[in-house]
Amino acid sequence: MRVTNNNQKNTLIVSQGTDNNNKRYSYMSIYNNTKIKKVSEPCGRGKTYALGSVIKSKQINTNHLILLPSKDLVTQVKSDLEEIHDIQSVVEITSNTTKSVRRTAIEYFKLAEDTGHVLLMTWQGWQELPYFNRRENWDVYVDEIPQIDKFLPVTIPFNKKNVLDYVEIGESVNEVLAKVKVKDDCENELQKIINKPFDQVNSLFIGLYKAILSDSRDVFVDLESWNRVFEREEIDNSVNIKDEKKSNNRVFFLSMMNPNEWNNVTLMGANIVSSMLFNWFSNYQVVFNILCHSFKLNAKALRSDPCPNPLILIKP
């Protein structure tokens, strides 16, 4: 894995792969047994439509969770499942349907029976959940490849405690990049800050704190910016901490999704093998299985009016 710090654009550019010695890092090895099912077909070939056939045939045997990229698509897919496939009890949990997606979803999973439920959420809403209650009762489908990287530049106040009190350097990846971790016994304190920031300065670090505490993300830091601010203390005292464009007090963090929540998930998207997710997860030795036994091309099975191009037929 390599990182380039582009100071003009304030971005970290990450390329996938282990180093020249094929070293694999300890934070990667714990996901060796993760297996993801993939359906890689171009847009418009009926992947989401065909999924309705699977849900219809399997609803009495299990629960189904479908994660989509937007609230509009959640609403659209819900309507399709109900009207086209005649699927009952489809539930939509987004900010359009509840004031607190997190609270509503946690309660829903807690009370859900072992079979029969169909739940639709956005990927973003799903990522905010702290845990997945009774995961074994759910078939999970991710419709469209989600973004796995998030750039987290933070401007450091003069006392620097908002980072150094809670965060430390972990395993080094190479000469320019290291993984960061929460200091021992600081998890509860960070969670309290996330739930209720002490002040305006605390609130500037919420994104970083959430990423570091998340079991589904790994957070890295650009060592040059870390050393400049924390080791050499080359801090610009004349710049307000909110003036990010002019401040030299910035440390560049990068949050990357890991495979923690992906075991036995079905990913549906176009050209999956060329995606950043596929390449990144391959570093963790995640296995992507093609659902050749479940997904077949069939031009007539999905709609009453056959389409000129073949569509995806999903057989349970």
The N- and C-terminal alpha carbons lie at a distance of 38 Å
CATH class of the largest domain: Alpha Beta
- Remind me, CATH topology of the largest domain? Rossmann fold
Strand content: 25-35%
Report the count of strand segments: 16
CATH architecture of the largest domain: 3-Layer(aba) Sandwich
Shape: globular
Provide the spatial order of strands within the biggest beta sheet.
Answer: 5-6-4-7-13-3-14
Instruction: Give the count of structural domains.
Output: 2
Task: Give the C-alpha Rg.
Answer: 22 Å
Question: What's the average pLDDT?
Answer: 82
H/E series: EEHEHEHEHEHEEHEEHHHEHEEHEEE
Helical amount: 25-40%
Provide a count of the helices: 11
The largest sheet is:
7 strands, parallel
Poorly predicted ranges: 1-22, 292-316
- Give the helix/strand class: alpha/beta
Q: What labels would you give this structure?
A:
single chain, 316 residues, alpha/beta, Rossmann fold, 2 domains, 7-stranded parallel beta sheet, 5-stranded antiparallel beta sheet, 11 helices, 27% strand, globular, disordered N terminus, disordered C terminus
